[in-house]
Amino acid sequence: MPTSPEYMSTGFNAWDPSVFSLIVFALLAAGLVTALLTLSVVLTRRRGEGEKGRPYECGVIPSGSARPSYPAPFWLVAVFFLLFDVEAVYVVSWAVSFSRMTWAAWGQITFFIGVLLLGLFWVWRKGGLEWGMTRKR
Amino acid sequence: MNGDENAARALPDKAGLGDVILNWCQANSLWPLFFGLSCCFVEQATVFTGLYDIARFGAEVLRGSPRQADLLVVSGTVFKKAAPMVKRVYEQMPRPKWVISMGSCANTGGMYDVYSVVQGVDQIIPVDVYVTGCPPRPEALLHGLITLQDMIRQKSRPLRPVLNLDGGHLGGRDDILVPGVTKDRDTRGPGMAGIPARGTSVTPPVFAGSRSDEMWTPPAPKLSFTPAHDALREALAARFGEPSAWHETVVDMPTVTVPAQRLVEVLDFLKHEAPIRFERLEDITAVDETARKVRPEHDFTAIYTLTSLSSVEYLRVRVPVGADLELPSATPVWPSANWYECEIWDLFGIRFTGHPGLRRLIMPEEWQGHPLRKGDPQRATEMAPYLAEDARREQPEDAVRLLEKAHAAPPARREFVLNIGPHHYSTHGLVRFILELYGEEIVDMTTDIGYHHRGVEKIAEHQSWHQFIPYTDRLDYLSGAANNLTYLLAVEKLCGVAVPQRAQCVRVMLAEFYRLSNHLLWLGTMVQDLGMITPVFHTFREREQILDIMEAITGARLHPAWLRIGGLAMDLPDGWDKLVRDFVTIFPKRVAGYRRMITGNPIVRARVKGIGRLSLENAVDHGISGANLRACGSTRDLRKVAPYSGYEQYDFDIPTRDGGDCLARFEVRFEEMVQSNRIIAQCLEWMPSGRFMADDYRYCIPDKRDTLRDIESLIHHFINATRGPKVPAGEAYAATEAPRGEQGFYVVSDGGNMPYRLHMRSPGYASVQALPLMTIGHTIADFIAIMGSLDYIAPDLDR
Question: Where are the bilayer-spanning segments (chain A) (predicted)?
């Protein structure tokens, strides 16, 4: 009898208690959310009160567009952070598996990190990381 | 208690279990709105702190937005300019919603029955519970909350409206009161409806002439000119010749009359070339001359008060206004003239040629007339009642239009426009800042004030000199007796009253206690604005300790109105020294604790360091004073450079910083607290014995013990307490180093028992006007830090 790998012997069983309880939990959560939403739709009195539909702006009538104009450095910095945060995942995995890596794999991943690094320098040079205010006028 | 007649009074006997549970839930989870109108609001905020702990009464932490709240506490005066905002905030709350009307101002207009005030918030929104007092103690608000909870628990069948069934009542009133029908608007009080008001066929329109006219008073004291004054006079005469007329009899400062055509030239000369340089424009105001006993030819006079920082001198420039009601603008000489001139246009109707954007600054845009003219109505009860329809119609101006008005030339394109205020968590009162944003950056801003204009200057014209003292308390509601002092110094200057040593020492002690009280509240709220919640609970602890001492001495917490012309209302009570000693020994340790807690915090430092920089030159040009000026490197403190009330006898230092940024303003105030504590400790050790009231009773309210002994004192008591003393004709200006900066009172008497004109120079007005200098180029988050570091307050701004 050939010995099967360890993972084959335990096998994947959909009725394993841990998965079963997860499904029950998910159903309960979905049910609760549905019940709460349904109750609030059924119970809430929807009255047409004009003032309540208006955005709250410190007690005065809002004016102008609600769309902020383009440069939102806060948003940009957040995007760059996410972008280079993903790079960290590769750098870490590259580091822990360094001894088992072939030269080809090493070259590929180094090229990838190098490209990202160039991107970082480019963003840096363009002032994307300047969390300061730029003079407009 | 006055809920819906049928629903509120009925016991929930028809209520089922679901109703009882619903009532219980609603009564025990009230979410009040953080809604700041005026003095009462400080007491409302106090119930939120550890000592009172609003959460014990089912009301959780105060909410910042109407969307999150079910309880609106209207705390303080509702103004015609702010009323549309109050109504909107109420309507944006979800149902059920309850309203507590807190303080006599919110209930009826209170002591502020003046043109700008709404006679009770119940005319525009429905009110469930009234909390009385001016301001009510925090305990009174807590009692109001308990009363409201009882009302909610008695709601009959609240579940029915929830389930969309007929009948039942969920809570909150729907009706507003109608003046003359369900609400009494008669200033004489309820029950006077049958008696005709003054001015009808039955009674004469005005009271018979005041008997003050028959009294004699000595003339006001005369200022003796110094050689420096003479040099200035010669220089002015050499340069401008006859047109500049020098007044020979003045009370407080050299005064010169200048014709309107040469005004700007003269001001420029005084600022840049005169032998005494007047670097700062202290104030501009106007006087309507049409009702004077001795009437000049012109109808209005504009009064420019100039300050010399280099030689501690003041100069008054009087400019008669011609029949065309037009003056040249002083904005080319001092940029800070901008708002002063707007205010004069708004309140008097005098136009300024060459002004970059003359607009109504204080009154709403639709306002008819110019309220500080003698002919305009004084009381709100002389005008039509302000009702819900008015609040709907008279909306605050559009933000974009206000931005356009603030500048002579509009920019090519408007970016994102954001209102911060009038109702905002961190505006420290009702003020509206309009920011124009490019991304996160503030590229332009303007300020709209007047949401807190109580018209006290008009009120003063109809009160005796004594009766006005309680109003001064409320002008800067965090500084209590410190405001009394400034007003009284001006009046005492005009009357030539010498205040006894003991009274002066007590005045100094009270003023310093209120400085501490103000700075503690400022410290707590400023770091709270920055997101650090803990310190506010701690600073209110010492603040309550101070208010307890104030209460033991004066009988009141926020507004003691305890100083009098010539002295104090009473002597110090027994045991005052123990209370004060306990305080001065522990306070330095507490300040050191705050220093560790706040300035040791790297995040707070990063939020304030290098933010909102202001150069000394700009600060002087814009009339900034107090701690804000000292943070720019100036050492000017009136307590040192022009001591009053015996400040020269105390040993204390003036902390200064060079940075001119938020951190510098922060540190200066921090150290000022330690210095104030030193002064109080010296008052405690030194407190002289003797009288607490001047013994010349011509202008003072005599010591009660004297009135029981001799008839002269009794007569003076009677006259001065009823129609008030006759103050000699003349004008005087006095300024003190109030907690927020240099606060000044300009009083004009035409020899009657009431001020002919009174004007207050408020330190916040200058600081807030200079906000664009500090904020443009910073982010929104920095803006909140800058606002907090300036330490202004709305009633002091709007008066």
Answer: 20-44, 74-97, 103-124
| CA-closest candidate to residue B798, choices B344, B454, B444, B384 | B454
Q: Is B714 exposed, middle or buried (0-12, 13-18, 19+ CB in 10 A)?
A: middle
Chain A / chain B CB contacts < 8 angstroms: 92
Q: Which of B63, B87, B95, B438 to mutate: most A Cβ within 10 Å?
A: B438
Averaged pLDDT, B528-549 = 89
* Dist CA B240 CA A108 (whole Å): 86
Q: Determine the residue among A40, A58, A65 to mutate to test chain B binding: the one whose Cβ has the most chain B Cβ atoms within 10 Å.
A: A58
- Domain layout of chain A by residue ranges: 5-46, 72-126
- The alpha-carbon gap from A40 to the nearest alpha carbon of chain B, in Å, equals 10
Q: Is it the case that residue A137 has pLDDT exceeding 70?
A: no
Contact A63 B439 (CB under 8 A): no
The percent of chain B in helix, strand and coil, each rounded to the nearest 5, is 40, 15, 45
Pairing of strands B351-353, B416-420: unpaired
Work out the minimum CA distance from B429 to partner chain A, whole angstroms.
Answer: 12
Q: Which amino acid is at A81?
A: F
So what's the pLDDT on residue A116? 86
Query: ω into residue B135 within 30 of 0, thus cis?
Result: yes
Helices (H), B369-428: 388-393, 399-406
pLDDT over threshold 90, residue B153:
no
Residue A135 has pLDDT above 60, yes or no: no
Residue B167 neighbours by CB distance under 10 Å: 10
Residue B710 main-chain phi, psi, to 5 deg: -135, 150
Q: What one-letter code names the amino acid at B222?
A: K
- Tell me the two tokens of residue B778: 């910073």
Average per-residue pLDDT in chain B? 87
What dihedral do alpha carbons B187, B193, B199, B203 form, nearest 10°?
Answer: -120
Does residue B61 come out as left (phi exceeding 0), alpha (psi in the -120 to 50 range) or beta? beta
Nearest one of B327, B332, B333, B366 to B348, comparing CA atoms: B327
Strands (E), B535-679: 563-564, 567-568
Residue B411 has pLDDT above 70, yes or no: no
pLDDT, tens digit (0-9, with 9 covering 90-100), for B672-710 = 999 999 999 999 998 999 899 998 888 999 988 889 999
Q: Which helix (H) or strand (E) holds A26?
A: helix A17-43
Comparing B100 with A50, the larger pLDDT belongs to B100
Q: How far is residue B232's CA from residue B228's CA, in Å, rounded to a whole number? A: 6
Place of tokens 């001894």: A99
Task: Check whether B414 has a pLDDT greater than 70.
Answer: no
Q: Using one digit for the tens of pLDDT, what is the confidence trace for B71-101?
A: 999 998 899 999 999 999 998 888 888 999 9
Which two tokens mark B553? 């001495």
Per-residue model confidence as pLDDT tens digits over B302-313: 999 999 988 888
Per the DSSP assignment, residues forming a β-bridge with B245 are B257
pLDDT band at A71 (very low <50, low <70, confident <90, very high): low
Residue A45 to residue B400, Cβ atoms within 8 A: no
**Lowest-pLDDT choice from A31-35, B55-59, B667-671, B791-795:** B55-59
Q: For A88-122, b where at least 16 C-beta lie within 10 A, e where not — what string?
A: eeeeeebeeeeeeeeeeeeeebeeeeeebeeebee
- In DSSP notation, B380-445 reads GGGSPPP-HHHHHHSPPPPHHHHHHHHSSS--SS--EEEEE-SS-TTSSSS-EEEEEEETTEEEEE
Cβ–Cβ < 8 Å for B529, B787: yes
CB A68 to CB B92 under 8 A? no
Tens of pLDDT, residues B511-534: 999 999 999 999 988 888 888 888
Side chain identity at residue B696, one-letter code: D
A58 and B432 in contact by Cβ < 8 A?
yes
Is residue B68 within 8 angstroms of chain A, CB to CB? no
Paired strand residues for B433: B420, B447
